[in-house]
DNA sequence: GTCTATAGCGCGATAGAC
DNA sequence: GTCTATCGCGCTATAGAC
């Protein structure tokens, strides 16, 4: 036990917020945010829907709590990567960290990539927009023209693809393939830039 | 006017099914299937929500009608591609056709890729599952092991990425970049297969 | 053939029992 | 502090006016 809580807190802790967050995320992944009712979350834990609105005063509060850890982790990664001066080292660090983030937070990441209702939610929209803009800027070299936008969205979507449907492969092997996918598309973008400047 | 309808049908035709389908798709793209009510669709066309359930007897019927043209087009493409004997020619034809499909049907394609509620809908789920399985099989060479699954999902997701957020680029230039992305990832997969067989 | 009116249901949220 | 009971709302779907 590495936390500082008392023995009497153990049972309360296990049956508390994190269980609700876990159940909610499971259901958001499967049915989407709008398709998941507080009733469904309560049923899964054997409590009433009122028990859910007790722990989280609204459904808005719940979605904020579910995404917070992933957004926080991604933000720290971006802060660290953006502090790196050399472009190629910065890009490599961002790709490594983003792949790690996707694997560690794959449930949240795959949910948000497939649920327009969640991304469009007032609580989620603006921070998500900002984070994706920053990761795009880190992964793509050169000016942010139309071609960079296209390849940038291709990279982030390509990295998300393999985490959508669980594959029977170790996290380490998955990481290796995701990095290969990222580097392959970064090279592809650079080649596309060379092609377009040559034809100018 | 290339259709055979009478002049008296013109006004009825313009204000009929296709207008409902177009408005519904617009709203599905923006708010998701569960986030779009019949009320919202009626409001956009200046009619009551009952007018929507008159043309389509249920919301299930509506989603079926919205996706039908895109699914039909994709199915014809797959039938044609699968009839090609030589693997590399089959793969090239599938990639070309799939990119054309994504550009022509970009609203439906980007909606379905971002709305778990729509993909999970009974009317959509099974045909969509079958179509994505077939396109994956066409685009990826060799045995369908874990690595093939990973790169297959990376390719289809990467191709979908650039159509999600409209970019100010012509369809022709977009097509060129999507083909480059597809070929780049197909080459990446082949290199990954060589790496993994060498290390066995 | 197209609409209004409304039924019937499930939702998120809350007041108050315990 | 945690639950039960319930409120008010918006949803899909339908019956029936026009």
Task: List the uncertain runs of chain A.
Answer: 1-13
Residue share in helix of chain A: over 70%
Number of domains of chain A: 2
Structural class of chain A: mainly alpha
Largest interface: A-B, 46 and 46 residues
Which range does the strand content of chain A fall in? under 5%
Number of helical segments with 4 or more residues of chain A? 11
For the sheet with most strands of chain A, the description reads: none
Radius of gyration of chain A: 20 Å
Given the C-alpha coordinates, what overall shape of chain A results?
A: elongated
User: What sequence of helices (H) and strands (E) makes up the elements of chain A?
Assistant: HHHHHHHHHHH
Mean pLDDT of chain A: 91
Instruction: Note the gap between the termini of chain A.
Output: 64 Å
Oligomer: homodimer
List the defining traits of the structure above.
Arc Repressor Mutant, subunit A, mainly alpha, 200 residues, DNA-binding, 11 helices, 2 domains, homodimer
How would the blueprint of this fold be written?
2 copies of one chain form a homodimer.
Chain A: H1 10-14, H2 17-31, H3 38-45, H4 49-55, H5 59-82, H6 87-104, H7 106-114, H8 116-119, H9 122-139, H10 146-164, H11 171-198
Helix pairs in contact in A: 2-3, 2-5, 2-7, 3-4, 5-6, 5-9, 6-7, 6-11, 7-10, 9-10, 10-11
The structure holds a DNA duplex (18 and 18 nucleotides).
């Amino acid at each position: 036990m590495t936390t500082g809580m008392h023995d009497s807190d153990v049972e309360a802790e296990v049956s508390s917020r994190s269980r609700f967050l876990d159940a909610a995320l499971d259901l958001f992944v499967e049915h989407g945010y709008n398709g998941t009712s507080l009733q469904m979350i309560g049923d899964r834990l054997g409590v009433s829907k009122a028990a859910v609105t007790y722990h989280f005063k609204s459904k808005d509060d719940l979605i904020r709590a579910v995404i917070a850890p992933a957004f926080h982790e991604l933000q720290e990664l971006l802060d660290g990567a953006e502090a790196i001066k050399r472009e190629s080292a910065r890009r490599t660090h961002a790709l490594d960290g983003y792949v790690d983030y996707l694997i560690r937070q794959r449930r949240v990441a795959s949910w948000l990539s497939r649920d327009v209702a969640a991304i469009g939610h007032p609580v989620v929209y603006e921070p998500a927009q900002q984070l994706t803009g920053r990761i795009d800027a880190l992964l793509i070299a050169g000016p942010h023209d139309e071609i960079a936008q296209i390849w940038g969205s291709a990279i982030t979507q390509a990295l998300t693809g393999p985490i959508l449907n669980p594959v029977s492969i170790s996290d380490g092997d998955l990481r290796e393939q995701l990095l290969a996918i990222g580097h392959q598309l970064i090279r592809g973008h650079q080649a596309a830039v060379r092609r377009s400047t040559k034809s100018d």
